[in-house]
Structure formats: structure tokens, C-alpha cells
Please model this.
Amino acid sequence: MLQKGAAKKVTIFVNEDTQHHFGPLTDSILTYLLHKGVAGATATRAVAGFGAHRVMHTNKIEVLAEHLPIRIEFIESEEKVNELMPTLYEMVTDGVIEVQDTHVVKAANKDLPAEPRPPRAELKGTARLMRIFMGESDKWQGEPLYEAMVKRLRLMDIAGATVYRGILGYGVKGHTHKSGLLPFSRDLPVMISVVDTEDKLRPAIEAVESMMQDGVIVLSDVDVIRLVRSRLPSEVSNANG
Amino acid sequence: MRMVKKAKLLRLHFGEADQFNGKPLYEAIVDRCKVLRIAGATVFRGLEGYGGTAEIHRHHLIKKDQPIVVTIVDTEENLTRLIPEVEAMIDTGMIAMSDVEYIRIEKPPAGN
Model:
């Protein structure tokens, strides 16, 4: 299963009609990657292109349409790529193999959990609580600031964030926040409380600071007693059966 | 560049129905904070709770008495000025204070 973070992206360019063991090379490569348990691979047929043979492959001329380039791409960890590379090097008799550094932001699978979650042993004992005070009508790139912040914190894998709406307040933004008679166009105080370890919160504070125009961040030490996660469906069915 | 200051966080717990001089206690406290030039105060309404009187505070059709928390952050000196005043205003309730670090963010409105 592909993990978040640094990874390698491998791109292989071959000809559609290049043969390998009496079959198309593309099929052989994909079969090999599947057999080796690679997270995923995609082969795309090009519209046109040329390579080492200096012949333009295009689908405009029927004779040349058989030689269209194929691009096979897959993303895997560095160790896995190193393991596969000798065989791929052997297989691609005519074409290009390229490897580049990449960063996996999200690897989600609706059947499996997004990633094997370790039982967050680190979040027990001393942690930090961050309270962020702002106004409800504050915006970040056109969307409500509190929503944008929760999204950002989620992307950063912060353990949890909760948004509270106050009913009255003053301080940040220099005016009193009070709900008017009309239910819309109000600017009530909003507080987001976030709990995680000091190390995880440090980059989060920077991110929050860069998004906020006017507000207050308050930090304090807390003791985390227990972090309970909902169980996966598979675990629940096991427990029932 | 970034200013991280030591400060105190004060939390006042009481009920929404509590009054002071004929107006809601939380409004009176926020007004008092403004007079005393406290940096900021925010009032939150809880859904349900109980406290010193073992009476459950919850939303009721005729009696609205949900729990209220007023959160105030400022320096210790300013809060010591405030505490005796709010103490006199709150009939039944709770005052809690904790140590915090405080970062004020104020950017010029031009750039984003």
C-alpha cells in the first residue's frame, strides 16, 4: 500500500508494437508490476510523438498509426522501485525509463483504510492545546477561514480540531461580535481548538499564522488521557462474530 | 518577528439565565471587560451541563438556562484587576485560570 510522503514516480516510454515474449511489451510490463504488488500503474496511448528512431508516430497516417508511443506510469516507494528496476531495465529493449522524486499527498482506497493507522502511542501524556480566535466572517481565498483552517489541519494530519461559535465577544478585529436581528450577515466570534503533540503543532501554528489576517493564537500544555478512534468496519464485524 | 508572550486564560462558568442589574450576566461581564480594557472576551453557549447546584442546565421550552463559558485571555496583571470584579458579579459559578502562550496576529489589510 502506498504511503503518504516521499516516493518515486517511474515513467516508461515504449512503442505500442514493441514485442516481448510474443506479446505487447506494455502488457508484459503491466503484468509484471501487478504481480510484484505495485500500488497502481497506468498505461496511456499518445496522440503523437517521436523517439530515438526520428520517425513521427501519428494517428493521421494509417501506416504510422501502429507505432504510437505508450506511456506507463507508476508511483512506489524508493525501495520498491529499486527492487523492480533491474527487471524493467531488462524488459524495455526499446524505449526510455525515467525515475523522478515525487510526494504522495493522498493515497486513498475506499475498501481499505487510507493508511494503516498506528495506535498513536505518541499522543498520550503531555500534548499542546491551541486555541485560535477569529471572526465568523473572516475569509481565506474566498472560503470561510475556519473551514479553510480545519481542512489545512486535516491535510497536516493533526489529531483533531473543533470549531466553536461564540454568542458574544470582542477583542480581535476591534469590534463587538454580536448576533443581529437578522440571521444572516453576522460576524460572531469563532474559536478553533486543536490538540496534538508539540512537534506536530509547530508547523500547524505557522500554517494558521499565514492564513490569518487578524486574530489570536493561544497555546497551553495539556495532558491527553486517551485518544479513541472509531473502529474499522472489518474490526467491528469480527467483534460481533 | 513573531511575538509569543506568556499570558493567562480565564474561564468563567455560569448559566445563561443569570442576570446582573437586569441584563444577562455574560453581557454585563463582557461590558465590564471592555471598561477595564481587557484584550478580549468571548462568550460560548454550551448544550448541556451541570455545576455547583446539581441542577442540569439545558435548553427548555420556557426556561432558557444553558451553560455559559466566558473565555478571556490577557496578562496576569490585567486579569488580577478583573477577577475581584467578576467574582462580585457571579452568584453561583466557577472561575478557572490557566497558563498560556499568546500570539497576536495583526497584518495590514492590504496583502493576503
User: Anything to note?
Assistant: The helical segments of chain A are 25-35, 78-91, 145-155, 198-211, 233-240. DSSP finds five helices and 15 strands in chain A.
